[in-house]
């Protein structure tokens, strides 16, 4: 049996937890969800026979050792500030790690040790970036396998709120930390248009906007 440890039971994790629990019997997984608020972890597990909820404090060294030692895979949904700590603990206890956070330099520096131990750390495995990259490559490879040629590719990823509740200035449905939406633009942006690389400095990112036509929804 493979043991999966999920750190964090906040608003971004219920879908992940439900998916893993639904697949747990078939793949022989056991899913442990740890959160500082054990009630959130218990709600996420919902008495599933293949799941367990624990109160978990990432700053408690003994607690980390106890639970990381049992884990084959750690899914880190905690704040990015804990990424390095979680990564080092995974390395020490020979556990793979997946997180939605951007890869920081400290995690990148662990690559030689990860290769030596045969471990995989996957960063940026959320919606954007993450699922958008994987779904994009799936479509691109499908077209190429059929002999097609890609002449252009546009990808849009967002949490879209219902029209009647568009109360925030970004018109973005935020299930995570709103501050991170703004921080994501701090490094600027880069894309290719008509064969030329376009670069936007950070203070232009939220000013460079355009309308998008979405089938079944209309112009957004």
Note down, in words, how this protein is organized.
With 220 residues, the protein is α/β, with parallel strands linked by helices. It folds into 2 domains: 2-122, 3-Layer(aba) Sandwich (Rossmann fold), CATH 3.40.50; 131-219, Dihydrodipicolinate Reductase, domain 2 (2-Layer Sandwich). The chain has helices at residues 14-27, 38-45, 61-68, 83-92, 105-108, 111-117, 131-145, 178-183; strands spanning 2-7, 29-35, 51-55, 73-76, 96-99, 121-122, 189-193, 196-200, 213-214, 218-219. A 6-stranded parallel β-sheet has the order 3-2-1-4-5-6, sandwiched between helices. Strands 7-8 form a two-stranded antiparallel ribbon. Strands 9-10 form a two-stranded antiparallel sheet. Strand 7 (189-193) and strand 8 (196-200) form a beta hairpin. The N and C termini lie far apart (46 Å).
């Amino acid at each position: 049996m493979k043991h999966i440890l999920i750190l964090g039971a906040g608003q971004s994790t219920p879908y992940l937890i439900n998916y893993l629990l639904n697949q747990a019997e078939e793949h022989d997984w056991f899913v442990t969800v740890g959160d500082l608020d054990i009630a959130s972890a218990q709600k996420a597990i919902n008495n599933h026979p293949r799941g367990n909820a624990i109160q978990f404090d990432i700053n408690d060294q003994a607690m980390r050792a106890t639970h990381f030692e049992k884990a084959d895979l750690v899914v880190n949904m905690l704040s990015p500030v804990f990424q390095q700590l979680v990564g080092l603990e995974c390395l020490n206890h020979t556990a793979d790690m997946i997180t939605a956070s951007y890869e920081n330099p400290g995690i990148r520096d662990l690559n030689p040790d990860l290769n030596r131990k045969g471990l995989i750390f996957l960063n940026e495995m959320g919606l954007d970036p993450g699922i958008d990259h994987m779904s994009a490559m799936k479509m691109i490879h499908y077209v190429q396998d059929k002999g097609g040629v890609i002449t252009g590719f546009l990808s849009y990823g967002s949490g879209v709120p219902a029209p009647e509740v568009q109360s925030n200035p970004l018109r973005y449905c935020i299930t995570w930390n709103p501050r991170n939406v703004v921080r994501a633009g701090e490094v600027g942006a880069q894309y290719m248009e008509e064969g030329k690389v376009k670069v936007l400095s950070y203070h232009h990112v939220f000013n460079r906007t355009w309308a998008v036509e979405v089938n079944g929804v209309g112009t957004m």
